[in-house]
Amino acid sequence: MVGIFGPVAQIGMVVRDIEAAMHHWSTVCGVGPWFFMPRYPLPSFRYKGTEQPGPDVAIALAYSGEVQVELIQQRCRTPSMYRDFLDAGLEGMQHWAFWAADYDAALSRALAAGHRIGQEGDATGRGRFAYLESDGPVASVVEIVELTPSRAAGFDRMKAAAAGWDGTDPVRLL
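Given the sequence above, the corresponding structure tokens read:
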């Protein structure tokens, strides 16, 4: 059973030092190569329903088999779920993500199931995303990512690079 969203596609980690995290994951865990964006633009961003400038975040993506690992470092005090996580003294896994070919239908299913939008936006025209909150015995955040053709092609290239990765060139700038 894969739930209302489909299979888990990504594990999202919020970290305080993205360079150290990439180094750890590549050298200790053997996960890489990392595709690194030191400044990931979020031109359309809403936190708790309020439109605002997107936070200054660095993002790194790598694959371990079929699962994408995402590292996120927020480098500003802009309100966001990343900032909430760090301000609570946490670091590490912050969300699970699912790819949605039909983003609107996936979001509708999530809202009908009782999830609430914590933050959402459009990632530089690559497609929309929403981070969903829910109540329960274990706090959880689920991200729905719109799987546009350009995003899917980029993810496929990253997955192919990971499949044949020999440990060289562990960080690649995007």
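Helices lie at 18-27, 81-87, 103-112, 149-163. Try to locate this feature in the token string yourself.
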